[in-house]
Amino acid sequence: MQFQDISPQRIEKEVEKSVQNFFVQLMPATFLCITTGPCKSVTQSYANCLQNNSPSWRAFYGTEPSKMSAALRHAILKYRLIESTIDKLHRSALEIEAINDSCVPRYTSVTYCAPICAAKQTPFEEPVGYCSEECKNAVRACLHESANEWDSSVVILRKLSAEFDKGFVEVRLFFKNPHFCSFR
User: Fold this and answer.
1) How far apart are CA 148 and CA 154, in angstroms?
2) Where would a tag sit more exposed on the chain, N or C end, judged by fewer CB atoms within 10 A?
3) How many domains does the chain have?
């Protein structure tokens, strides 16, 4: 199964499960540090006992696990959107490399026009405007459809990547939060 095959609902469940497991693993050490002062290591049986009773300890962490889950889920979904947009841009670039069949006759007429334009031009004259403009127009017409799609994808990518690391920063700040630190 590829990353893109996972539904947003499944991502939400997996992130929540992972965050819950993280807090269950964190519970024994956190509880011991708070109750005894300096942090001490615990026996595995003591850690297992606390972990097995973790559902009754959910109030201990408050809403922090759900906030952390939401920040992680948002960052993952944003990453997926960025990844799919980059993939779309890549495919678009590959398609542009191949000349569209409808562009071939237009390009041919411009290419054929070039020798005629060059013959009309004397060494002291400016290039004939028609040929120069016709060439530009032919290229624009051939690339117009792809260019619009490309432009819209680039705009999406810029918006998404402007604050891409925000979700990860939120998770990092969560651990630096004095409220969270009081549990450690």
Assistant:
1) 10
2) N
3) 1
Q: Which structural domain, as residue segments, surrounds residue 92? A: 3-181
Q: Which residues does 90 contact at the CB level (< 8 Å), separation at least 6?
A: none
For 90, counting Cβ atoms within 10 Å of its Cβ (0-12 exposed, 13-18 middle, 19+ buried), the class is exposed
Segment 155-172, tens digit of pLDDT: 888 887 777 676 667 667
Q: Can you give the pLDDT at residue 184?
A: 40
Q: Check residues 167 and 20 and name the one with the higher pLDDT.
A: 20
Instruction: Report if pTM > 0.70.
Output: no
Q: Are 136 and 106 in contact (CB under 8 A)?
A: no
d(C-alpha 164, C-alpha 97), whole Å: 30
